[in-house]
Known about the structure:
By secondary structure, the protein is α/β, with parallel strands linked by helices. It has two domains: 2-19 and 231-417, UDP-n-acetylglucosamine1-carboxyvinyl-transferase, Chain, CATH 3.65.10.10; 22-228, UDP-n-acetylglucosamine1-carboxyvinyl-transferase, Chain. The protein has helices at residues 22-31, 48-60, 86-89, 97-106, 125-133, 164-174, 190-201, 233-245, 261-269, 307-315, 335-340, 370-382, 393-396, 402-407; strands at 2-7, 13-17, 39-42, 63-68, 71-75, 83-84, 108-111, 137-141, 144-148, 156-158, 180-184, 205-207, 213-217, 225-228, 249-253, 273-276, 280-284, 294-296, 320-325, 344-348, 351-355, 364-366, 386-390, 413-417. The strands form six sheets. A four-stranded mixed β-sheet has the order 22-23-1-24. A four-stranded mixed β-sheet has the order 2-15-17-16, covered by helices on one side. Residues 22-23, 26, 93-94, 117, 121-127, 161, 163-166, 187, 304-305, 327-328, 370-371, 398 line the site of ligand EPZ.
Amino acid sequence: MDKFVVKGGKRLEGEITISGAKNAAVAILPAVLLCDEVCRIENVPEISDVSVMIRILYELGAKVKMINRDTIEIDPTGVGSCMVSADMSNRMRASSYFMGAMLGRFNRAKVAPPGGCDFGVRPIDQHIKGFEALGAKVVIDNGMVDAKADQLIGAPVYLDKVSVGATINIILASVKARGMTVIENAAKEPHIVDLANFLNSMGADIMGAGTNVIKIRGVRSLHGTTYSIIPDQIEAGTYMVAAAVTGGNVLIKNVIPKHLESIIAKLVETGATVEQYDDSLRVIGPERPKHCNIITLPHPGFPTDMQPQMAVLLSVAEGTSIITDSVWDNRFRYVDQLTIMGAQIQVDGRVAVISGVEKLKGAPVAATDLRAGAAMILAGLCADGVTEIENIEYIDRGYSNVVEKLNAVGGDIKRVNIPPQNVIPQAL
Ligand code: EPZ
């Protein structure tokens, strides 16, 4: 077990380079199963969610070769199994994508329900609705989602909720189905466009990704490809807030500014300066942020995955701010941890009312999920004193080299090992 120890009060200054997008990588890796040849994936982030994905691919029979820190070569031709067990599946939400990928390849998939951050109910009814529209029979048997079809036939699917996961899973299942599939009310996140571009680079025929109507014309086979994953929108947003909340001046490199429009708009509203360049942007934080209100929405609205990070900035802003999370019904569990540090936040269901305070105070806190953990780091960076963060395995799921990246711009964060509690120290 490790923890982060963060010393606050330093303005961040310098350059941070963003890694590949977690939520694109965890969709693209299972998608390799649909291919009949070797695929080379570049700009893969060094995060534990990717390690779990690679382990699942390996256990399914794929050959996986690490070319270097961020490049992987995968040969899916030896994959024979169509089952992902609970002990692997429940370690992340994106394991559900193996359902769509294996259904698309084998007309069969047996996957234990996915895990992932706990924001309340995270159903997969829209995923199953899509599989059934394509002709699959889906049963939940003995704790496994078991989907099978004689032949997947393209069909129209209207999503009752805008769902990233369901959109991705239906794309994966329909890429080699017979005929045309049309997903209406589809999610438009950058990682969906990246998955579609990856599949099309292998010979798939997907149109409209990034809009709310995506058409997938089934093809018979997919050939190998070399593909580079887009930069991570949420990692970039997190470090943008780090610059703003410390009153710093940071050049964030390897970004796609178009993916960050809502985050830029909100940071500017709080008084930050954001200078945009082709593939980078500079964030200059104000002496003290101003309050603003935020409603999280599916892309291109303000991303829910940036909600905890913005709550930290608004905790030390002048005035009162309101955050409404329209995507998740219980994504404010981190507020208790921020309150320990002196934040003044009232939560009622999907709404948090934040009364800004001058300063947060360092304290021992815990990460309650991936983005909440990132928010705790931001709180520690701007607080007076020292903040110790436990449960940092959540953070390692989605942020590569966070200690190195922050210390390179003047932050003061260390990863410290915590010996197991039940071990009585040896007598010296
Ligand atoms: C993806 O989760 C992301 N995870 C989440 O990011 C992100 O918060 C979320 O999309 C929204 O952007 C990955 O990409 C691995 P949804 P997902 O299906 O696919 C409801 C992070 O921090 N819904 O878009 O699980 C659902 O309850 C993670 O990187 C159904 O009702 O989210 C929610 O209210 C955390 N039925 C809404 O739709 C379904 O079958 C959006 O969920 C599916 C979803």
